Amino acid sequence: MTNLVEISNLNFGYGSRLVLKGINLAVPKGSLVAIMGLSGCGKTTLLRLIGGQLRARDGTVTVAGQRLNDMSQGELYALRRRLGMLFQFGALFTDLSVYDNVAFQMREHTQLPESVIRDLTLMKLNAVGLRGVQSLMPSEMSGGMARRVALARATALDPELILYDEPFAGLDPISLGVIGQLIRRLNDALGATSVLVTHDVQESLKIVDYVYFVSEGVIVAQGTPDQIRASTLPFVHQFIWGEADGPMPFHYPARTMSDDLGMREA
Amino acid sequence: MVLEATLRGIRLVGDRTLRIVERIGATVAFLVMTLVHSATSFRRFDLVIREIFFAGVQSLIIILVSGLFVGMVLGLQGHETLQNYGSEQSVGVLVALSLVRELGPVVAALLFASRAGSAITAEIGLMKATEQLSAMEMMAINPIARVVAPRFWGGVISMPLLAMLFSAMGIIGGFLVAVVLIGVDDGAFWSQMQAAVDFRHDIVNGIIKSLVFGVAVSAIATFEGYEAPPTAEGVSGATTRTVVSSSLAILALDLVLTAFMLKGWN
Ligand SMILES: Nc1ncnc2c1ncn2[C@@H]1O[C@H](COP(=O)(O)OP(=O)(O)OP(=O)(O)O)[C@@H](O)[C@H]1O
Ligand SMILES: [Mg+2]
Predict the structure, then answer these.
(1) Is B231 at the interface with chain A, CB within 8 A?
(2) Which of A255, B37, B181, B191 is the most buried (most CB within 10 A)?
(3) Which CATH architecture has domain A3-82+159-260?
(4) DSSP 8-state code for residue B130
């Protein structure tokens, strides 16, 4: 099986601070791979590198056999037509209705007649359970609804590679399960490949094929969901069971609390 | 001591000047980029029409009302001065020429910058802050072609139309004050105006001015929005900068254009 996404020896930082260090990662064609890790560990950054929004300076990122590092904008746009991305905060177009948001790419990139676009758009909205809100504006929806519309939009053109940034954040338990199943089904029915960034361990372990754990910019563990559940690594254990104490610090590196509060050690 | 302070002063002035020149250069570079990506706007002119509606039609009320008031004031002031020379019939000429040559293009552009220019900046800036522009790029759609260029052309097309409406309303205002209120002879008012206003030198030059102002305001407004830091303060700062820079640009360009038009172009 070939890899649709391949990252090797990637180092990346904003400014001088390295956010990702020595990342090696492969996403086989047709699989659904999760990237998990604490908030701020660099997951969104990793997705942006795969989507070509950020360029790697050190190491290589390959998508569908093409090296992203030094692509021209034309080549990048050609590649992105085969790609769908769900943004962490939805990023719906606020000047367009829900319907027009989902139909946007069909209108921009295809010559389909409006009646076909209408059928496709309603099917996509139906899949996320929101056919009823097609005429609302994004500002008239709750955060969870907006994310489901964004999901419908991301998959509008049946992309080969779908990147999901936190598809589960802000969803109620019922939508959570439905959306999880939908992501799996989209992957299998479309023959797509998916990369899922999340910190929802329980839900994603149910649907994914493979998991990478990132901590402080380094891949610290990886494996199939069964391997991960059975893992004895203290790190993985802490993450899965949500324990505050363990190898992963809950606090961003800082001075001691007593220093910050100006207290003197007695 | 004194020398040091002077040197510091000079350096500060030099620094500021450099930064202003840099900013102007960046705006012009952005304008060129917008022009390069304008094909979409003309292939799908409905995108531009939508922006003409937002920028033009929504500035209509303020332009019409201001034009009327400015014309009335011109009528009053003109009559007051001209009657000293016994030529109060020429008030129509004075009103028409001031409006068509100067006040129409300039005041309409200033109003347009604060009403529509600021709105364009805020809209593009917010689209950037909420990742809508990134989302568009990920869909392989160039935001400069799809978002910036239609707004730019919408502004450029609206501007001369608004300036003409401003002048027309102003002439009506002058007529109301001078003829209806004060009792200047109706026939003299119009016939002198008709004889004195030259199509090429007054009307066409006025249109050229407002076209140039339209380009300047639209370029500044779209540039500031596109380059705004993606935060609330960033967008509000950019909105203010649009109004300030546009107003200065309009007044400076007006001086240059007027000088050229009076001296002839060669
Ligand atoms: N545009 C930026 N400029 C500078 N630093 C950034 C920028 N974006 C992110 N960072 C930093 O990079 C690190 C990783 O950010 P990233 O958004 O990738 O985290 P994440 O894993 O997606 O977190 P979350 O789960 O909270 O979304 C953070 O420490 C953040 O401070
Ligand atoms: Mg993130």
Answers:
(1) no
(2) B37
(3) 3-Layer(aba) Sandwich (3.40)
(4) T
